[in-house]
Amino acid sequence: MNYWVIIDNEKIGPMQLEEVLRLPLKRDTLVWHTGLPSWRQACFIPELAGTFCAASSGPVPVVNPYTQPMPSAPAATTPQKAETKPPTYIAWSIVAICLCCAIPAIVSLIYAAKVTPRFDTRDYEGARKASDNAELWLIVSITLGVMWLPFQYVLFML
After folding, report:
1. Cis ω for the linkage preceding 14 (within 30 of 0)
2. Do residues 29 and 6 make contact, with C-beta atoms less than 8 angstroms apart?
3. CA nearest to 21, candidates 42, 38, 35, 44
4. How far is Cα 151 from Cα 139, in angstroms, rounded to an integer?
5. For residue 103, how many C-alpha atoms fall within 13 Å in the half-sphere facing its CB?
6. What's the DSSP call for residue 42?
């Protein structure tokens, strides 16, 4: 179970029970863990009560000192907005290398190869930029390839 503690007006957590027990807690230190509706004094948390109070009268809720209530799950495990992987353009880059201008298509392939690793390391902005650059160089390659077709036709006719 994850615990959060407020010591010197600083929220600390998430932590495991063993870590909480090592902190310099006082009986009135505010503690919250998943499943609690509000912050409580450490003396009224059953697993901590033995270290502070000889006899406790039961859990007494304490008003949350923060304007926003504590989430029901720690921020690290709350679901984030699902990011979609941008297109890689790897296949198109390989086709462009074979059929069009190879140099810009190779640059496109280099950027295309950077999309997946960046996305997997949650560098979503870097993955999007690499995808955009791969697309740009792919368009340059195809455009130059199409512009070269008339010249190629003339050269082969000679």
Report:
1. yes
2. yes
3. 42
4. 19
5. 1
6. G
pTM of the prediction? Answer: 0.47
Quote the CA–CA distance of 98 and 145 in Å, as a whole number. 11
* Nearest-angstrom CA–CA distance, 132 and 129: 5
Instruction: Give CA angle at 150 (153, 134), nearest 5°.
Output: 115
The whole-angstrom separation of Cα 22 and Cα 114 is 44
Per-residue DSSP letter, 80: P
- Residues 5-52 have pLDDT tens digits of 888 878 888 888 888 888 888 888 888 887 888 888 888 888 887 776
Give the N- to C-terminal CA distance of the chain in Å, as an integer: 80
Beta carbons of 62 and 41 less than 8 angstroms apart: yes
Whose structure tokens read 């390391």?
121
